[in-house]
Amino acid sequence: MIIRQALPDDAELLKELYFEHLTAFPPAEEQNMQMWRELIQHFYDDDNIELLVCEVSGKVVSSVHVTVIKNLTHNLRPYAVIENVVTHADHRCNGYGSALLSEATEFAKKHNCYKVFLETGSNKESTLNFYRKNGFSVDAKHSCLKRL
């Protein structure tokens, strides 16, 4: 297992991972993979963002995206948001997602974040237990969503 920042060359593997193992409703339209590569490069270059991947036998099997957001409260300490936590269905329960969440949390700590926040659209007890096992409180706050 290798944990590293995503590189532009990972775009196709990330698209497959997201569209087949993360979202129930992937976009139907053809994706502009050059734009994917450019955005991944932007994430790589931005000190406040990490798009992390777990690579096993040369294939990206898990990913997590963490962004540090500057903040005017909590003595100007930022907070971090984790999104797109996904592991290929054939590679679940091997510790890859947990390793990525740990790395994302360390990234937040290095940025002096006062909290790490994530949401899940899943109500499956196994998913909620996964987050609990990784130190996240499932019922501590309420999330409100407005789709645009």
Protein model, in words:
The chain has helices spanning 11-21, 33-45, 96-110, 125-133, and strands at 2-5, 49-56, 59-69, 79-87, 116-118. With 148 residues, the protein is of the alpha+beta class. The chain has one domain (2-133): Gcn5-related N-acetyltransferase (GNAT) (Aminopeptidase, 3-Layer(aba) Sandwich), CATH 3.40.630.30. A hairpin with a 2-residue loop joins strand 2 and strand 3 (59-69). The chain is globular. The N and C termini lie far apart (37 Å).
Summarize the entry for a quick read:
By secondary structure, the chain is an alpha+beta fold. The protein contains 4 helices and 5 strands.
Number of helices: 4
Order of helices and strands: EHHEEEHEH
Q: Give the end-to-end Cα distance, rounded to a whole number of Å.
A: 37 Å
The major beta sheet can be summarized as: 5 strands, mixed
Proportion in helices: 25-40%
The total count of strands amounts to: 5
Uncertain stretches: none
Mean pLDDT: 94
Major sheet: arrangement of strands: 1-2-3-4-5
Give keywords.
five-stranded mixed β-sheet; 148 residues; alpha+beta; 32% helix; Aminopeptidase; 4 helices
How are the elements arranged and paired?
Layout: E1 2-5, H1 11-21, H2 33-45, E2 49-56, E3 59-69, E4 79-87, H3 96-110, E5 116-118, H4 125-133
Parallel strand pairs: 4-5
Antiparallel strand pairs: 1-2, 2-3, 3-4
